[in-house]
Each structure stands twice: as structure tokens, then as C-alpha cells.
């Protein structure tokens, strides 16, 4: 089985294994998605959703974030970690959206990257989820760990892993690759993986080695 066929098999099985969406950032508007994604850096989606529940009720527009008291914002996002930077990002996002984009979240990748705290990973997610426009595969901590273990890449940086995965999958599947790899990374392919319970063990070179030698894979 060549790499492209194996990649297709992996995604097909993961879709069957995780038919329901896992715990991801909850949102109802593009602005809420941007805020949630920025807060999710180095933080669990579960914690982000706890924080954004009252936050989204209080700050409903970009201008509201732009006019927010920075110390108040710091307290409100404190539990997501790196709260000073994140509060500054949120206020900066509000200010830029209000002044440059008439309060609306822009619909292009290049413009999204102008927003404070928005990386390529974040921008790819926002484009796919908010605007149904896949622009690339977002590589988070789980994808960074899972993709090399599955033998889909030999790289270990987000940019290079994303580029290689994008060659293996159609653009319509980019978001599914991200989300299903994340769910698999949370459930099975953890830092200390549960290879014996994995539906991919027969197509995963790391699992084959682990099951043969009894050693923990890295």
C-alpha cells in the first residue's frame, strides 16, 4: 500500500471510529471562533469553552473587545494561561477589526494573519470552519505527534508536516484530517500510546514496531 492509499485508509477508519465531533471550541459567529481559537493556545478546548461562555455574552462585537479594560480582560481569560498576552491579543483583534474591517472578521487567509495572536494554524481553522474555505491543514500538538507516528511524514515541524499532509489529502478533507487526528491523539495515540487498542495498528509502522518489540514508541 503506497502512502496516499494508506492516508486514505487512515482517515476512513478514523471517521468510522470517531463519528461524533469531539470537544472543540464552541462558537456561533466568526468573531467568537477567532476569540476561541486564540484562547485555545496552550489550553484545552474544555477550559476555553468554560471561559468563553460568559465572555461571549459580555463582548458581542469587535468594538466591545476594542474598548474593554485590559485588566478586566486579563481576569476574565486568566484560567486559559498566558492571560496577559491573550488579553492583549483580544483587545488588539477588536481594535483592528473595528478600524480596518468594519467590525467583521475578514474572509481571506492573508487578512486573518494580520490579527494579533492568529497563526497559520488558527487561520486555516477559521477559514475552514467559519467560511467553509479549506486553505490548509492546521497542525496542532496532536497532529504533530500522530502524523509522523503513522508514517505520513518524516518531518517534525508544523509547517512541513502540514505541507506534506496537504499533498496526501484533498482540500475538502483538510478539516476532517485535523479534527480526527486530534480525536485519535486524545483517545489512543497519546504521548504514551495505546497501540493494542488502536484501529490503525495494521497500517501504522510505529504500532507494528511497538507490538513486535513491546517497547513504548516515541
TrEMBL record:
Binding site for [4Fe-4S] cluster: 189, 195, 198, 204
Note accompanying the cofactor annotation: Binds 1 [4Fe-4S] cluster.
SUPFAM superfamilies, per database record: DNA-glycosylase
Single biological process term from Gene Ontology: base-excision repair, AP site formation
EC assignment: 4.2.99.18
Signal peptide: none
Domain HhH-GPD: 39-187
Enzyme class: lyase
Reactions it catalyzes: 2'-deoxyribonucleotide-(2'-deoxyribose 5'-phosphate)-2'-deoxyribonucleotide-DNA = a 3'-end 2'-deoxyribonucleotide-(2,3-dehydro-2,3-deoxyribose 5'-phosphate)-DNA + a 5'-end 5'-phospho-2'-deoxyribonucleoside-DNA + H(+)
Pfam families found in the cross-reference section: HhH-GPD (PF00730)
Keywords annotated in UniProt: 4Fe-4S, DNA damage, DNA repair, DNA-binding, Glycosidase, Hydrolase, Iron, Iron-sulfur, Lyase, Metal-binding
Cofactor(s) annotated in UniProt: [4Fe-4S] cluster
SMART domains: ENDO3c, FES
A GO MF label: metal ion binding
Role of this protein: DNA repair enzyme that has both DNA N-glycosylase activity and AP-lyase activity. The DNA N-glycosylase activity releases various damaged pyrimidines from DNA by cleaving the N-glycosidic bond, leaving an AP (apurinic/apyrimidinic) site. The AP-lyase activity cleaves the phosphodiester bond 3' to the AP site by a beta-elimination, leaving a 3'-terminal unsaturated sugar and a product with a terminal 5'-phosphate.
Family: Belongs to the Nth/MutY family.
Protein name: Endonuclease III
Taxonomy of the source species: Bacteria, Candidatus Komeiliibacteriota
